Each structure stands twice: as C-alpha cells, then as structure tokens.
Amino acid sequence: MLENGLPQIRYNQEKGKGVEQNYKEAMKWYLKAAEQDSSLAQSTIGYMYDLGLGVEQNYKEAMKWYLKAAEQGDARAQCAIGEMYNLGEGVEQNYKEAMKWFLKAVEQSFAYAQKNIGYMYEKGMGVLQNYQESMVWYLKAAEQGDADAQHKIGLFYSNGEVVEKDLIKAYAWFNLAAAGGHKKSAGIRSKILKEIQPNQITQAQKLSKKLQYKIDHPDETDAMIDEKSTDDSVESSMEGQGLPVDKSKLKKNGTGFVVTNNGYILTCYHVIKDAKAIDVKIDNITYPADLVQSDLVNDIALIKISGTFTALAFSSDRSAKLGESVFTIGYPNPEMQGDSQKLTRGAVNGLSGFQNDLRLYQISVPVQPGNSGSPLLDMQGNIKGIVVAVLDSFITLKATGKLPQNVNYAIKSSYIQALLDSVPEASDNLRKPQNKKLPFEKVVDNVKGNVVKIETF
C-alpha cells in the first residue's frame, strides 16, 4: 500500500503514524525492500542520504541509490539525479547532464522535471535562453497541478514579457497556484484584483474553474472540458477563487453587511477563516464571494461579490457615546431560528472591551452564534462597528467566580475604516452617513436589505 507515493511501513515510521517517528527504523525497512529491487525503496534511500534523514548526509551515497532506481525507470530518481548535477551536489556541476536526466523523467510526464526544464530554459542553464520554450515546459507542469509552474505562468501573463499581457489569465493561474499553497500567488492576485473590473474577475474565475477541471480530468477532450467546466452547478471557491468545491459540507454561518454599491462586504475574519468557498445570500439569491483583504488581529474581513447593491454608511462620529442606543440585524443560529433576519437592540455599556481592550465596545445588544459579522448601528442606521464576540461564560466563571450576563463586544468603526483604506476601490466608494431622524421602523426598513447571510464551505 502506498501513501504519498511511499511504502506504508516506511511512511508510518518516518511520519510517526501509529509508531514513534524513527528514521533509522524506516531506513532498515527500506533496505529490506531495496534488496528485492524495489525502485521506490531505492529512490527513497537516496532521498534520505540526500537530506541526512536517519543517516549522515552523503551526496555520493545518495547518487548511488538514485542511480539504482533510475536504471529501473524511476522518474523521481531520474529527476533527483538531474537536480544533483544542476546544483553540483556529489558530482561536478553539469547543466547538460542535468538536462539529460530531467528529459528522462519527463518521458513519464513527471511534473517536477518539466518545471525544472522550464526553469533552465528561462535562465539559459545548459541551453540557449528561450522564454517561449520555458513557457511550454512550465505549462506542461502547471497542467499537472504544480503550483510553482502555475505561479510562473501567472508571472509571464502579468508581466507581458514572454506572452502578451493578460491579467485575466494571470489572475486565473495565480488562483490555482494560491490554492496549491504557493505563498506569493495570493498577494499578487490581490494586486491584480485592484486593476481589473468585476466582469473580468468573473471571467478569470470561470477560466480558473476550467483549468482546474482540465487538471483533474487530463484524459477528457477540450469539448468535454468546455461543457463540464462551465456547468453552473460547479461553484467557485474562495481559496482558489474559482475552483470546484463540494458545497454539501457547510462549515459555518455568519453575517455581513454591504458597504459599497459595487459589492464590497464586511464581516468577521473568523467567519470566513479556512473557507474553501464563500457564499453571500441576498433576497434569496446566492452570490459567490472572494476574499479581498483581512485583518486577523482585529478579526475583520473584506469580501466582494459582483453586481450593484445598496449599502450602509459609517457614522460621522469618531466614537460611540457611553449609553448610546444601538441595534444590530443578523442571522443567529439559522439551524434553530430559521433563515430570516433577527433584530436586537441595546446600548453601548463600555468604551473598552475585555481587560480594557480599546479596540472594542462592550454592548448590551443580545447576540448569538451567527451574529458574528453583524453591523452595530446607531438609531439613524449608520455603522458604529462590527459585532465580533460574546464573552465566554466558562472562562469568565473560572476567572471571577461569576457568570457574565449579556456581555458582548463590537470592533470600533475606526479599525474597520483603517482596513478599508488599504483597498482604495472600496474606501473611495463609501456612502455619506444618514443624519436625518426617521421613525425606527423606517430606519430598519432602510438598512435590512444591506445585511447579508454568509455561508462558508
């Protein structure tokens, strides 16, 4: 049985699954398998000598075992030998020899070797520098799901030096790379987000979905891919922003509120944390949302949907007043209380939060799970903050010997606006506050359409 391409016994020993992690014991079992000419065991022994896992690091010994496996056609070992020639580890550095071994590995469509050949053509290592040829090899690796190669293609399209500049294609490839764990891709994707229009974002998401479908179904024809990857039943993801996600697995519910007419929405970061997909529900219509910006310290997230909407406005006052009347609308406990909005009223009980945290208001507005991300509003319907937390009863009981009564918190609007300032497209489109006094029922009617339900998967 294999796991991560490695024999199960070795995997258990090395990773400590069911046994204490023990590289030396793992090596003992590899050697037994290698005696029976297991190329996988031989390749892994080479890897352990290469990195010094359970044995003293020894490049020459690593090369010996890699060669045993490579002679049996093991693509991993062939690629490893190429890397050793490429870096001059255990052998004299020789780019042409490295290329020879990489080409052996790509005969079996080994993505890592394809990516390395792309890099060698990009840098002119052992071959004439050729960006177009580099792009060809990166694309081969990218279409097998290699995140580094996907990132490289994104760079080519965003820079416009190798191929014609195309931010839609760049965004789509950075989506895939970010979903594959490439750390820089998500940041570049966020910058591109500021340069393209909402309809272009939608195109990029669809392209991401098509590319990912092609990666997952390499044997299907282009016509089949075009048909199935554009199926509306395939939803988009947040992490991959456009990748297919199984939405039978609801992660959590929360609340958010629209702050610009072009679809920027604020919520709590913990509502969307680790989500593979975000859905926003407005008037029984579901919109896929993308994460644009987040503030983990203050538990704030800015997401975006495509379309035109009405929005809430921020209060012109820098701070709420002690005793000021406030209210919120949200979607608490939808499993028990249903999907309709719930309104609760209260007052600002304190101008600081738990243990004098100056970022927070303490409020008497009753809130429950699902209210996270709800707007804290004044009596004119202007934003004073975001409802973020309920003081944990058990922790408070242990600390004070008393149970808290209706102790809830909201992040102050000044911290929210600091986050918005980092996204000019959002901060430049904020509404002016509403200062006209209206009957409370009318205020509620004006704002309730701007408070949305958020579901993550």
Characterization of this structure:
- Helices cover 43% and strands 17% of the residues.
- The chain is built from 19 helices and 14 strands.
- Helix 3 (39-51) packs antiparallel against helix 4 (59-70), helix 4 runs antiparallel to helix 5 (75-87) and helix 6 runs antiparallel to helix 7 (111-123).
- It is elongated.
- Residues 1-18, 229-243 and 391-398 have low confidence and may be disordered.
Contiguous runs where pLDDT drops below 50 for at least 5 residues? 1-18, 229-243, 391-398
Neighbour order of strands in the largest sheet:
3-4-7-6-5-14
- The mean pLDDT is 82
Strand content: 15-25%
Which key terms come to mind for this protein?
single chain, 457 residues, alpha+beta, six-stranded antiparallel β-barrel, six-stranded antiparallel beta sheet, disordered N terminus
What would a concise description of this structure say?
With 457 residues, the protein is of the alpha+beta class. It has 19 helices and 14 strands. The strands form three sheets. A six-stranded antiparallel barrel has the order 3-4-7-6-5-14.
